[in-house]
Design goal:
Oligomer: homodimer
CATH architecture of the largest domain in chain A: 2-Layer Sandwich
Distance between the termini of chain A: 53 Å
């Protein structure tokens, strides 16, 4: 349940998509690493907050207690700590596992690919963070997915907001996950959850509401830096100062047009400590609708400065920031688009079919195809002793093989091969 | 235990190796598919004989009972049956899982990559089988791993041998797995296991011994076809006839020089029904040793005509033959070779480092690198506001970045960028 096979046409399309993402990661100088699908259960414990119940555990068959990785970020942090690496830019493309209720029609599965890019190291503020946003911008532009928006916020600003609204620190995390629903449900429902489920007062919830419904750009950052309450909060001030710096760098990258500082963005995972962001595709439902409609998140990430320290015996921290491209959602969109366009994705790259027009020519075919393979040419032949020529040519048309190399009795006598262009039927 | 992380240099080397294997599979017209790491436990049950105890099972967390895939062949068969596909040539490169005692020094892990190529379909005898051997030959030649030998046998010949030696059919499978040890332990030990553990008589074991110690080429096939006992056995006769045909095709491919018909080859898995084969690397230990020493299997495969039928509700069979490249073993060899040669494998592909020689030039670097990225150039910069030029150039040397694009105050005034060749120190 919640998993799927990828038949050839899908696998080929996915390869094409992943190649575009890898190209961007390499353009930014990232190295690839690979980690096991299996992690010690204790490695995953306490990293995912309320989502931890979705972790797949392995049967205790003797030896270590294992689980399937839930994302690529925790294994990366474990890898850095284990190898005492304090400085690294890496990408990792691999499958992760979540015992979620799959919504396979919307491209949500229990086994799915993640494409992560992360920068670890003690650096000057917001330079790597800005690069992560640049990467999201490049990939979404390259893939021509239509208009998109990258929402940005900072956990420190959110925590500052909660503090000045009178929320006790013990409720920050749980309040965060409620705020995060603001992109899916209206404020009134979010408020109800805060009051009824999370036990906040009406007044506190209303005060939060005044902040988390704000979004904008540099102007909003400046306004909040002047906010009489927020500007008194150390964390919020730090977060807003860095947000301003981030926007400066994004201006130099020329991408602020697609960036929105959005105080409702919270993101679910426990481990974020600074900047957080999420990219959504926008869709003009029809011309009468003024506000573009979000069709869901296609990338997300943020800063997690404490995670690596959780794996170090001495608690030594390695600041990290990273981005995860939501390749499955993007794949679903591309797949629909290919289907709509009627484009036929070739599942193989075969250049030539070695064919024979008469019987008893298997040996000639085997000799010729062997020469072609040895010369590096992508070639196929029928696994029948005496296939019909028409069937062989039909197969070329069906699978998009552009050429047929034909050896018949005449060709054998003349010591030649007849090369046929399948589309034009031209022969030489 | 038995798993490992792949740091960047290893991941880059592995990518290079996998690319060579994929190139060969594509040259032979195979399409890629992907299947989940998770399979239903019942899918794997009864497919692996004595090895089944090595399957990783998932905890029962509600819902289906799951296991991690043990190889890529059973999932392929399940895929064919589920989708009613009767005809397919596919490759699949992915990780599989075995709770084996890992011998990590010899490149044996509990999580490891398999690279499989299989041909499914009802075809004329031995044509796809010959292609599988050609593929092994091409890959081992391409990778320049030194001398190798591909041992070939047929389950039908083995079963024929067992029958004419008076072994009851119920003991064929278990006798097979004992014979398979002949490449690792001497005949006397194999015989002891047959008699003491498997309950064969001394005489029967000796009779088996006369056959399974034979190896050769077409001459041996012809001799066995004349063997008074074997030639009376229907299965053995079929197997020997097909073996002769196989050698004819391999002669047309020009690769019989590396092929040995070896009656001791048995292979452990239950599902093989016809041709089986295994490639070993040969190593001349020193000039005084006459017989080359085998350093272990680097590829294997065979025909499994019954497996797909086990997944079809009506038991409809789809004949299959395939090969699995032992990529982990090959990777270990390549890694040792790279280490011995002192070759430095670059972990990234970065073409240029954007550097500044004075302070307060971060904005200039950000603007320039953004232009480079947008132009598709692989570029990096330091995440520091004011890095030292010497450190920036040193980083280029350490990581193999060939060029530095330098913007200083003078360059900014002149509206130019200074491009420095890191190796020659030439600047333009």
């Amino acid at each position: 349940q919640g998993t799927r096979d990828h038949p050839p046409a899908q696998a080929a399309l996915r390869d094409r998509l992943l190649a575009a993402v890898v190209a961007c990661f390499k353009r930014h100088g990232a190295a690839a690493i690979d980690t096991p699908v299996l992690e010690l259960r204790e490695t995953l414990t306490g990293k995912y907050g309320e989502e931890a119940k979705l972790i797949y555990e392995l049967q205790d068959q003797g030896g270590e207690l294992l689980a399937l990785r839930y994302d690529l970020t925790v294994p990366f942090a474990r890898y850095l700590a284990m190898n005492k690496i304090t400085n690294m830019k890496r990408y990792h493309i691999a499958k992760v596992y979540r015992r979620d209720n799959p919504a396979t029609t919307r491209g949500r599965y229990r086994e799915f690919y993640q494409c992560d890019f992360d920068i670890a190291g003690q650096f000057d503020p917001m330079i790597p963070d800005a690069e992560c946003l640049k990467i999201v911008h490049e990939i979404l532009s390259d893939l021509q997915l239509g208009d998109f928006l990258i929402k940005v916020n900072d956990r420190r600003i959110l925590n500052g907001v909660f503090a000045v609204c009178g929320i006790p620190e013990s409720k920050f995390v749980t309040t965060c996950s409620t705020v995060d629903k603001l992109d899916k449900i209206p404020w009134q429902d979010v408020k109800n959850e805060m009051v009824e489920e999370k036990g906040l007062s009406h007044e506190a919830a209303d005060r939060i509401g005044e902040y988390v419904q704000l979004h904008g750009g540099l102007d909003l950052i400046e306004r909040l830096l002047q906010d009489p309450k927020l500007s008194q909060n150390k964390l919020a001030k730090e977060g807003l100062g860095d947000m301003k710096l981030l926007f400066e760098y994004l201006t130099l990258f020329g991408i602020t047009g697609k960036i929105s500082f959005d105080l409702s963005l919270a993101r679910g995972l426990d481990y974020y400590t600074g900047v957080i962001f999420e990219a959504v595709l926008l869709q003009q439902e029809n011309d009468h609708v003024e506000e573009p409609v979000s069709v869901g998140s296609v990338a997300g990430g943020g800063r997690y400065d404490g995670l690596v320290g959780m794996f170090d015996p001495k608690g030594r921290k390695v600041p990290c920031v990273g981005v995860s491209i939501g390749i499955e959602r993007i794949f679903s969109i591309l797949e629909q688009r290919v289907k709509a366009s009627g484009e036929k994705v070739r599942a193989t790259e075969t250049q030539v079919l070695v064919a024979t027009p008469q019987k008893n020519l298997l040996a000639a075919r085997l000799k010729l195809i062997s020469e072609l393979w040895d010369a590096g040419i992508k070639a196929e032949m029928f696994y029948k002793k005496d296939p019909k020529l028409l069937k062989q040519l039909q197969y070329c048309e069906d699978t998009g093989i552009p050429l047929a190399a034909i050896v018949g009795e005449q060709e054998l006598t003349d010591g030649v091969v007849k090369l046929r262009d399948v589309a034009t039927r031209e022969e030489v």
